[in-house]
Request: fold
Amino acid sequence: MRNLKFWLVLAFALVSCSVYDNYDGSLMPDAVASIEGDSSSSVKETPVSSTEEKSSSSQSEESSSSQPEEKSSSSEAVSSSSEAPKSSSSAAWVCDSILDYGKYQYKVAYVEEKGLCFTAENMRKTVNEKAGKTMCYDSLEANCEKYGLLYDHNAAEHVCPQGWHLATWAEYDTLRHYTGVDIDFESGEFFKATAGWKADAEDDEEGYNGNDLFGFAALPGGYCVSTDACYGIGTTGEWWTSSLENASSKTYKSLELFGSDQTGGYSTELPEVFYAVRCFKDRN
Reply:
Protein backbone atom coordinates (compact mmCIF):
# COMPACT_ATOMS: atom_id res chain seq x y z
CA MET A 1 0.00 0.00 0.00
CA ARG A 2 2.78 2.34 0.99
CA ASN A 3 4.57 1.53 -2.28
CA LEU A 4 1.41 2.13 -4.27
CA LYS A 5 0.89 5.62 -2.65
CA PHE A 6 4.53 6.39 -3.36
CA TRP A 7 4.15 5.67 -7.00
CA LEU A 8 0.93 7.66 -7.24
CA VAL A 9 2.56 10.73 -5.66
CA LEU A 10 5.53 10.42 -7.95
CA ALA A 11 3.32 10.14 -11.00
CA PHE A 12 1.32 13.24 -9.96
CA ALA A 13 4.52 15.23 -9.47
CA LEU A 14 5.83 14.29 -12.86
CA VAL A 15 2.57 15.38 -14.53
CA SER A 16 2.55 18.75 -12.69
CA CYS A 17 6.06 19.54 -13.81
CA SER A 18 5.24 18.87 -17.44
CA VAL A 19 2.25 21.32 -17.35
CA TYR A 20 3.76 24.27 -15.46
CA ASP A 21 7.43 24.08 -16.39
CA ASN A 22 6.71 26.28 -19.50
CA TYR A 23 4.51 28.84 -17.72
CA ASP A 24 5.90 32.39 -17.58
CA GLY A 25 3.81 34.90 -15.69
CA SER A 26 5.03 37.71 -17.85
CA LEU A 27 3.72 36.00 -20.98
CA MET A 28 0.12 35.39 -20.02
CA PRO A 29 -0.78 39.02 -19.47
CA ASP A 30 0.77 39.87 -22.83
CA ALA A 31 -1.19 37.14 -24.48
CA VAL A 32 -4.40 38.52 -23.02
CA ALA A 33 -3.34 42.03 -23.92
CA SER A 34 -2.77 40.93 -27.47
CA ILE A 35 -6.32 39.73 -27.72
CA GLU A 36 -7.65 42.94 -26.19
CA GLY A 37 -5.42 44.95 -28.47
CA ASP A 38 -6.91 43.21 -31.48
CA SER A 39 -10.32 43.90 -30.09
CA SER A 40 -9.54 47.56 -29.41
CA SER A 41 -7.98 47.83 -32.83
CA SER A 42 -11.20 46.66 -34.39
CA VAL A 43 -13.06 49.31 -32.39
CA LYS A 44 -10.75 52.08 -33.55
CA GLU A 45 -11.25 51.09 -37.14
CA THR A 46 -15.04 51.36 -36.99
CA PRO A 47 -16.60 53.89 -39.49
CA VAL A 48 -16.48 57.58 -38.70
CA SER A 49 -19.65 58.98 -37.16
CA SER A 50 -22.36 60.41 -39.46
CA THR A 51 -21.56 63.92 -38.22
CA GLU A 52 -17.94 63.53 -39.25
CA GLU A 53 -19.03 62.12 -42.64
CA LYS A 54 -21.21 65.17 -43.27
CA SER A 55 -18.37 67.44 -42.32
CA SER A 56 -15.92 65.77 -44.64
CA SER A 57 -18.59 65.57 -47.35
CA SER A 58 -19.32 69.30 -47.10
CA GLN A 59 -15.60 70.03 -47.25
CA SER A 60 -15.38 67.89 -50.36
CA GLU A 61 -18.34 69.69 -51.94
CA GLU A 62 -16.87 73.08 -51.07
CA SER A 63 -13.60 72.02 -52.60
CA SER A 64 -15.28 70.81 -55.78
CA SER A 65 -17.57 73.86 -56.00
CA SER A 66 -14.58 76.13 -55.77
CA GLN A 67 -13.34 74.66 -59.00
CA PRO A 68 -14.61 76.28 -62.27
CA GLU A 69 -17.45 74.40 -63.89
CA GLU A 70 -18.04 73.97 -67.58
CA LYS A 71 -21.38 75.77 -67.20
CA SER A 72 -19.57 78.99 -66.39
CA SER A 73 -18.46 79.32 -69.99
CA SER A 74 -22.03 78.91 -71.29
CA SER A 75 -23.31 81.45 -68.77
CA GLU A 76 -20.66 83.87 -69.97
CA ALA A 77 -21.82 83.25 -73.53
CA VAL A 78 -25.40 84.18 -72.58
CA SER A 79 -24.17 87.32 -70.88
CA SER A 80 -22.16 88.36 -73.91
CA SER A 81 -25.03 87.65 -76.27
CA SER A 82 -27.35 89.79 -74.16
CA GLU A 83 -24.95 92.68 -74.66
CA ALA A 84 -24.85 92.21 -78.44
CA PRO A 85 -26.12 95.08 -80.64
CA LYS A 86 -29.86 95.15 -81.16
CA SER A 87 -31.33 93.73 -84.35
CA SER A 88 -31.70 95.83 -87.44
CA SER A 89 -35.46 96.05 -86.77
CA SER A 90 -34.66 98.53 -83.97
CA ALA A 91 -32.25 100.55 -86.07
CA ALA A 92 -32.66 104.33 -86.31
CA TRP A 93 -35.64 105.50 -88.38
CA VAL A 94 -34.55 106.54 -91.87
CA CYS A 95 -36.24 109.12 -94.07
CA ASP A 96 -34.88 108.91 -97.61
CA SER A 97 -34.94 111.99 -99.83
CA ILE A 98 -36.74 110.13 -102.64
CA LEU A 99 -39.73 107.78 -102.65
CA ASP A 100 -39.61 105.52 -105.69
CA TYR A 101 -43.20 104.39 -106.13
CA GLY A 102 -44.73 102.97 -109.28
CA LYS A 103 -43.49 104.92 -112.28
CA TYR A 104 -42.90 108.07 -110.24
CA GLN A 105 -40.17 109.36 -107.99
CA TYR A 106 -41.45 111.68 -105.28
CA LYS A 107 -39.35 114.18 -103.37
CA VAL A 108 -39.46 113.61 -99.62
CA ALA A 109 -39.17 116.12 -96.76
CA TYR A 110 -38.17 115.42 -93.17
CA VAL A 111 -38.86 117.52 -90.07
CA GLU A 112 -36.47 115.74 -87.75
CA GLU A 113 -37.43 117.59 -84.58
CA LYS A 114 -40.98 116.26 -84.92
CA GLY A 115 -40.09 112.90 -86.45
CA LEU A 116 -42.25 113.54 -89.53
CA CYS A 117 -41.27 112.24 -92.97
CA PHE A 118 -43.61 113.02 -95.88
CA THR A 119 -43.83 113.38 -99.64
CA ALA A 120 -42.87 116.89 -100.73
CA GLU A 121 -45.25 116.83 -103.70
CA ASN A 122 -48.79 115.66 -104.36
CA MET A 123 -49.41 112.03 -105.21
CA ARG A 124 -50.18 111.23 -108.84
CA LYS A 125 -50.60 107.47 -108.84
CA THR A 126 -53.98 106.02 -109.83
CA VAL A 127 -55.72 103.33 -107.77
CA ASN A 128 -57.96 100.41 -108.60
CA GLU A 129 -61.43 101.69 -109.53
CA LYS A 130 -62.96 99.54 -106.81
CA ALA A 131 -60.83 101.36 -104.23
CA GLY A 132 -61.95 104.86 -105.25
CA LYS A 133 -61.95 107.55 -107.93
CA THR A 134 -59.26 109.93 -109.14
CA MET A 135 -59.23 112.79 -111.63
CA CYS A 136 -57.23 115.70 -112.99
CA TYR A 137 -58.48 119.23 -112.36
CA ASP A 138 -60.93 120.00 -115.20
CA SER A 139 -59.94 116.56 -116.56
CA LEU A 140 -56.80 118.11 -118.07
CA GLU A 141 -53.63 116.02 -118.03
CA ALA A 142 -51.52 119.19 -117.84
CA ASN A 143 -53.02 119.97 -114.44
CA CYS A 144 -52.11 116.49 -113.19
CA GLU A 145 -48.55 116.98 -114.37
CA LYS A 146 -48.24 120.29 -112.50
CA TYR A 147 -50.32 119.65 -109.38
CA GLY A 148 -50.77 115.91 -109.12
CA LEU A 149 -53.98 113.87 -109.09
CA LEU A 150 -57.09 114.67 -107.09
CA TYR A 151 -58.66 111.80 -105.09
CA ASP A 152 -61.99 111.08 -103.47
CA HIS A 153 -61.49 109.97 -99.88
CA ASN A 154 -61.75 106.24 -100.58
CA ALA A 155 -59.01 106.50 -103.19
CA ALA A 156 -56.94 108.68 -100.86
CA GLU A 157 -56.99 105.90 -98.28
CA HIS A 158 -55.49 103.43 -100.78
CA VAL A 159 -52.90 105.42 -102.73
CA CYS A 160 -49.98 105.48 -100.27
CA PRO A 161 -47.37 102.72 -100.62
CA GLN A 162 -46.63 100.09 -97.99
CA GLY A 163 -44.91 101.67 -94.99
CA TRP A 164 -46.65 104.98 -95.63
CA HIS A 165 -50.11 106.33 -94.84
CA LEU A 166 -52.52 109.11 -95.65
CA ALA A 167 -51.71 112.10 -93.44
CA THR A 168 -53.61 112.50 -90.19
CA TRP A 169 -54.85 115.85 -88.96
CA ALA A 170 -52.63 115.44 -85.89
CA GLU A 171 -49.56 115.34 -88.15
CA TYR A 172 -50.57 118.51 -89.98
CA ASP A 173 -51.46 120.15 -86.66
CA THR A 174 -48.02 119.27 -85.30
CA LEU A 175 -46.48 121.17 -88.21
CA ARG A 176 -48.87 124.08 -87.69
CA HIS A 177 -47.65 124.40 -84.10
CA TYR A 178 -44.00 124.08 -85.09
CA THR A 179 -43.01 127.76 -84.80
CA GLY A 180 -45.48 128.90 -82.16
CA VAL A 181 -47.17 131.52 -84.36
CA ASP A 182 -50.94 131.99 -84.49
CA ILE A 183 -51.61 128.61 -86.03
CA ASP A 184 -54.85 129.54 -87.80
CA PHE A 185 -53.83 132.85 -89.37
CA GLU A 186 -50.07 132.62 -89.88
CA SER A 187 -49.00 128.99 -90.19
CA GLY A 188 -50.04 128.71 -93.84
CA GLU A 189 -46.84 130.32 -95.10
CA PHE A 190 -44.75 127.46 -93.67
CA PHE A 191 -46.56 124.93 -95.88
CA LYS A 192 -46.65 127.00 -99.08
CA ALA A 193 -44.12 126.94 -101.91
CA THR A 194 -42.19 130.16 -102.44
CA ALA A 195 -43.99 130.91 -105.71
CA GLY A 196 -47.17 130.05 -107.62
CA TRP A 197 -49.92 131.41 -105.40
CA LYS A 198 -52.37 134.00 -106.74
CA ALA A 199 -54.64 136.38 -104.88
CA ASP A 200 -57.70 135.23 -106.82
CA ALA A 201 -58.53 133.20 -109.90
CA GLU A 202 -59.46 136.13 -112.16
CA ASP A 203 -56.14 137.91 -112.47
CA ASP A 204 -52.44 137.21 -112.30
CA GLU A 205 -51.75 139.33 -109.26
CA GLU A 206 -49.22 137.64 -107.03
CA GLY A 207 -50.80 136.36 -103.88
CA TYR A 208 -49.24 135.37 -100.59
CA ASN A 209 -46.54 132.89 -101.30
CA GLY A 210 -44.90 130.94 -98.52
CA ASN A 211 -41.40 130.40 -97.15
CA ASP A 212 -41.66 126.58 -97.46
CA LEU A 213 -40.20 126.10 -93.98
CA PHE A 214 -41.05 122.38 -93.85
CA GLY A 215 -40.21 121.48 -97.45
CA PHE A 216 -43.92 120.73 -97.96
CA ALA A 217 -43.88 122.93 -101.10
CA ALA A 218 -47.66 123.26 -101.31
CA LEU A 219 -49.05 124.47 -104.62
CA PRO A 220 -52.62 125.71 -105.29
CA GLY A 221 -53.98 122.74 -107.24
CA GLY A 222 -57.63 123.49 -106.47
CA TYR A 223 -60.30 120.87 -105.82
CA CYS A 224 -63.31 119.27 -107.51
CA VAL A 225 -66.74 118.41 -106.17
CA SER A 226 -67.47 116.24 -109.19
CA THR A 227 -65.85 115.31 -112.49
CA ASP A 228 -67.23 118.47 -114.11
CA ALA A 229 -67.13 120.97 -111.24
CA CYS A 230 -63.66 122.12 -110.14
CA TYR A 231 -62.62 125.27 -108.27
CA GLY A 232 -59.67 127.23 -106.92
CA ILE A 233 -56.73 126.29 -109.12
CA GLY A 234 -53.96 128.86 -108.58
CA THR A 235 -55.58 130.20 -105.39
CA THR A 236 -56.55 127.25 -103.19
CA GLY A 237 -55.12 123.98 -101.99
CA GLU A 238 -56.89 121.13 -100.16
CA TRP A 239 -55.23 117.98 -98.79
CA TRP A 240 -57.13 115.01 -97.39
CA THR A 241 -56.47 113.52 -93.97
CA SER A 242 -57.64 110.19 -92.56
CA SER A 243 -59.17 111.99 -89.56
CA LEU A 244 -62.95 111.95 -89.17
CA GLU A 245 -64.49 115.26 -88.21
CA ASN A 246 -67.94 113.79 -87.69
CA ALA A 247 -68.55 110.06 -87.57
CA SER A 248 -72.30 110.26 -88.13
CA SER A 249 -72.03 112.42 -91.25
CA LYS A 250 -68.77 110.74 -92.30
CA THR A 251 -67.01 114.01 -92.98
CA TYR A 252 -63.21 114.19 -92.93
CA LYS A 253 -60.77 116.95 -92.12
CA SER A 254 -58.46 118.44 -94.72
CA LEU A 255 -55.60 120.92 -94.64
CA GLU A 256 -56.73 124.11 -96.40
CA LEU A 257 -54.52 126.90 -97.76
CA PHE A 258 -55.39 130.11 -99.65
CA GLY A 259 -53.42 132.51 -101.83
CA SER A 260 -55.23 135.56 -100.51
CA ASP A 261 -53.78 135.19 -97.00
CA GLN A 262 -51.51 133.02 -94.87
CA THR A 263 -54.29 131.07 -93.23
CA GLY A 264 -53.34 127.54 -92.29
CA GLY A 265 -56.58 125.92 -91.24
CA TYR A 266 -58.81 122.99 -92.00
CA SER A 267 -62.10 122.29 -93.71
CA THR A 268 -64.45 119.33 -93.43
CA GLU A 269 -65.93 117.58 -96.43
CA LEU A 270 -67.83 114.51 -97.50
CA PRO A 271 -65.68 111.71 -98.94
CA GLU A 272 -67.06 112.20 -102.47
CA VAL A 273 -65.12 115.42 -103.19
CA PHE A 274 -61.66 115.35 -104.82
CA TYR A 275 -58.64 116.71 -102.92
CA ALA A 276 -54.87 116.31 -103.17
CA VAL A 277 -52.97 113.71 -101.10
CA ARG A 278 -49.68 113.63 -99.21
CA CYS A 279 -48.29 110.43 -97.70
CA PHE A 280 -46.47 110.30 -94.36
CA LYS A 281 -44.05 107.54 -93.47
CA ASP A 282 -45.04 105.05 -90.79
CA ARG A 283 -43.00 105.07 -87.59
CA ASN A 284 -41.22 101.79 -86.70
